[in-house]
Structure formats: structure tokens, C-alpha cells
Known about the structure:
By secondary structure, the chain is α/β, with parallel strands linked by helices. It has 16 helices and nine strands.
Amino acid sequence: MPLHAKIPGVSANHGPSGLQTTSATHESAFLKACRREPVPHTPVWFMRQAGRSLPEYLKVREGIAMLDSCMMPELVAEITLQPVRRHKVDAAIYFSDIVVPLKAIGIDLDIKPGIGPVIAEPVRTRADLARLRDLTPEDVSYVTEAIGILTAELGATPLIGFAGAPFTLASYLVEGGPSRNHERTKAMMYGDPELWADLLDRLSEITSAFLKVQIEAGASAVQLFDSWVGALAPADYRRSVLPASAKVFDAVAGYGVPRIHFGVGTGELLGLMGEAGADVVGVDWRVPMDEGARRVGPGKALQGNLDPAVLFAPTATVEEKAREVLDAAAGLEGHIFNLGHGVMPTTDADALTRLVEYVHEQTAH
């Protein structure tokens, strides 16, 4: 099937795109919470809410490779909209993958089922940096098209754009794929700090360009995913990672959209992640929200942080654990309810719907 083929049953109603956020979207509970303003209820969305936990997702993705699906605007729009229709979440997140901008600039990679992104020729030397060219809007025209469709369909529901953070992208590029210990990544970071700094700087420019495309097409907020950065000690993060992440957040600051920063296993890094410049810091399930707020410091909204595994427990247990999250977040200036990581593929979709209803009911003013 061609990359831009129309998908049966998927709307191809192309709407206008652009930076103009509607007043209804601007007043959404999600964006208000990001700005630390009073909200009518605690807003809810889930990382990986669009994906394998939904039977309708499996149906439209059938027979289509992951990276191909990310380049088909009508399909991207349909998948992005599915959890909004089903769960009534307060925000949609653009359906894509963190390696899409790398693929777009010509890096030979594929997403292998059950493994993840695999890089054909890892980046290990200074000569390899030449392969990391600038990303242009034309490289990802399908993103602009998909967001145009989405902003027309979503109405008052905000759309979150996203990208992988420089450290996590670097780890994939250096290791050649997912890694448990990140030994090659750390070897470069410690052993050739100048090459490492140049690699992260290049990736910060590519990431910034990718986020700008999404914002200019109509995304109301953006999230930077640093999935693997929890592997680092705070001193290494400050010296070798924070400058590149800060460069990304600074590059999109002028757009005025909320910027969210999330990593896994980052309890020891929360204060530094707050320093990087985001407006909202995501907290995984290992740190209670009130302690997360203490570590991040004032002036930031927080996002999180129910353990995704809790959703496999009985409904009463899910509600009890969700209540604990809400209680721990009760004193925060701004709180967006989310999981502490992504929705697991075998999660019961109805459990997510019930959780959204519960949070909305418990926090309605």
C-alpha cells in the first residue's frame, strides 16, 4: 500500500492548520493545568493512549508497518482520534514514533516488532555525524497534513505534539537499537565528551525542527520524551545531557505553547529536568506526586503518575490507587493526571475509560 494511500473508514476531511489556537482549546482543562491556572476538573490523558490497547487501532493498522503508518496522514489522524472518542480524555497526542525524524533525514532504520527501533549503521565516529543532516518541513510534510486534519476534527480538544529527547535518540543511534545498559552510549559520553556533545547538539537541532513543524501545523502543546535518561547519575545528566534538552525547550519557547518533559526512572533527576526549561515535568510512578513537586521546585506543573500495571487490578483497586495519586497532587499548582509510563499493550481499554470517568468525577468543581 502506498504511504499516502487513503485508509478505508478513515476520514479524509482536511481542515485548516496553523498557529491559531481556538479560544475553546485555549480554555481546555489540560492547557489550563499546564499553565497552572484553576481547572474545572483534573485533566487526564495517557501516554500511548493511541495504540495496541485499542481493538480499533489493531484493525486499522493491520498489515501496515509502524513507520509506514506514521507517514499516512489519514491513518495518523484516525489513530490519534481513537482514544479521544473512546476514553473522553482531555488531550490527544499525535501518533508517531520518536525515530520518525531520524528516518526522515535518511537514517537507515526500521522498527522491528517485539524489539523496537534498529539502526542499520550506528553512529560511532565523528565521520558518522555527517549523516545527521538538518530536518526540513518538507521532510515531514505528512506531519503537517495529519495535524491539519486533526485540528479540524478535534475541536476544543488540544493536540500534543512530541519528540524524542537528544539523549534517548543518541542512545538508539549509538547502540544500534534498544539497550539495557547503554554501554556504548556511556562509553562515548565518558570517553569522547566532545563527540558526544556534538552528537547531542545535532540531535537537539533536529528535534527542535520536528517540534516546530508540529506547533506551526497546530499542536497546542509539546512533550519531550527522554525514555532512557534514567540510566544516568545526576552529575552526568547536568554535564552531558541538560544543555541539549534545554536547547530544545528554548528553541520552541517563543511559540508560547506548554512544554512537557518526561523520562522514565528519573526520580533522582526531577530537579534537573525542571531546570531544562519545560513548563510541565512528568513524574513516573516511583515517586509520589507531592515528593515530585518538592524535587522539581516551584513554578512548574506536574504530570502523572499512576503505575500502568495497576490497570490490571480490579476496578476498586484502580480507583483506590488513582485516589492516592490525586491526594498526593492535591496541593500542586497544576496537575495533569497520567500514567507513570505508557499504556501497556494488553491493558483492558474499558479500564482506561473508567479511570478517566473516575478522575473527572472525583475532581469536578
